[in-house]
Write a structure and sequence with these properties.
Enolase-like, domain 1, TIM Barrel
Length: about 425
């Protein structure tokens, strides 16, 4: 029996950083409902869809009451009575109402909250988990790319690289991979406490440690030491998120990295030295500024053994992905649903990337809640990697635990990506 959208309810909640965001609930005429929280980023690219915030003094101008008002006054009247399973039409209607290329009129936060909640409601109407509603054949559990050390805009230290991640590719299952990550996390904590002191185990926005270090090689040494001491040397690979836009000088077109000034060529050479020193680094994200297309092409041609992942470069935007594919820029993409603002557009971008040989790294944001919707989307996409953040906090643990649930539900049908983390379709 067809279920029609009858109501939308939205409230202002807070994320893991104490910043306001939206929780939206979509209800049908049959009484089924689904609820979704909107993630938010702190290091955002110029090409991301735009949130609507309130301004003024309340929540230091970051309140979302205006975006919620847009849900009630603009989105709800346009969607009432629509078949809840018509996800693409729902998303297209909201984009048309907004009428801007970056969703800045109604707000990507308002649109995404409704988009995700509608998908959850439709899944409930079909008595299916979300991952199965989105893709009846989804079966891949991704390799968690867990950020255990933080720098850049996500930490109060002098490390320029934003995230130092471990990937338990040698695990036999997702749940075993989580066990390995917990072992490494606790071992790293012991090492940092012993070598640096209590301040070294303070938490970052992503749930990793934020020790007072200033050299990327030193951070990698601590991380590799923890992996070795935990006994997982042959089962773990590493990933770095440079977030290069945070240390790029657009006026001079240079990078200020670890006290030195580099042009694009110098930055690529520096990255090469780091990869030579730590050959188990298999993924480098946003190693250059998002508009340095020539530099990205050279870097992609240089580091063919690594996943060269575009985050700010692509902003989960299929138009930028098409340009990159045409120019031979990057060879993998991050997928963040709030960068583009609707579930349909995020899936379209991910599927386009996979069809053209670019692996998809599904990703959380620095500003997260206890909503685990991204885990279901990852399994629906059969993504090989999921960037999870650290291994502590309910905002991070909720995704780990949801994957464990899905793995148990799928049973023998599930497959852990493991060494096939670069998988495509």
């Amino acid at each position: 029996m067809q279920s029609k959208l009858s109501d939308i309810h939205a409230i202002e909640i807070i994320d893991n950083r104490g910043m306001p965001t939206i929780r939206a609930t979509v209800t049908t005429d049959t009484g089924r409902k689904g609820t979704a929280d909107v993630p938010c980023g702190s290091s955002t690219g110029a090409y991301e869809a735009q949130e609507v915030r309130d301004g003024g003094s309340r929540y230091q101008g970051k309140g979302v009451r205006k975006a919620i008002q847009n849900i009630y006054e603009k989105i709800l009247p346009s969607l009432q009575g629509i078949d809840i399973t018509r996800q693409r039409e729902i998303d297209q209607i909201m984009c048309a109402i907004d009428g801007t290329p970056d969703k800045s009129a109604i707000g990507a936060n308002a649109i995404l909250g409704v988009s995700l909640a509608a998908a959850k409601t439709a899944a409930a109407c079909c008595d299916l988990p979300l991952y199965r509603y989105l893709n009846t054949g989804g079966y891949v559990l991704p390799v968690p790319q867990a950020c255990l050390l933080n720098g850049g805009l996500h930490a109060g230290n002098d490390l320029d690289i934003q995230e130092y991640c471990v990937m338990p590719v040698g695990a036999d299952s997702f749940s075993q991979g989580v066990e390995m990550l917990c072992d490494i996390f606790q071992t790293l904590r012991e090492i940092l406490l012993h070598k640096i002191g209590k301040s070294a185990v303070n938490s970052s926005e992503d749930g990793g440690f934020a020790p007072q270090l200033n050299r990327s090689a030193e951070a990698m040494e601590y991380l590799t030491r923890a992996v070795e001491k935990a006994g997982y040397v042959d089962k773990v690979l590493y990933a770095l998120d440079f977030a290069a836009g945070s240390f790029y000088d657009p006026k001079n077109k240079t990078y200020r990295f670890e006290g030195e000034i580099y042009d694009t060529e110098g930055m690529i050479e520096m990255i090469g030295r780091l990869l030579e020193e730590f050959p188990a680094i298999v993924s480098i994200e946003d190693p250059l500024f998002e508009d340095d297309w020539d530099g990205w092409r050279t870097l992609t041609d240089t580091f063919t053994a690594q996943m060269v992942v575009g985050d700010d470069l692509f902003a989960t935007n299929i138009r930028r992905l098409k340009r990159a594919f045409r120019l031979g820029v990057a060879n993998a993409t991050l997928c963040k649903v709030n960068q583009i603002g609707t579930l349909t557009e995020a899936i379209d971008a991910a599927r386009y990337a996979q069809r053209n040989g670019y692996p998809v790294v599904m990703s959380v944001r620095s500003g997260e809640t206890e909503d685990n919707v991204l885990s279901d989307i990852s399994v629906a996409l059969d993504a090989g990697v999921f960037k999870t953040g650290g291994i502590r906090g309910s905002d991070r643990g909720t995704n780990y635990n949801r994957f464990i649930e899905i793995e148990a539900e799928l049973g023998s049908l599930s497959r852990y990506a493991g060494l096939d983390y670069k998988r495509k379709i």
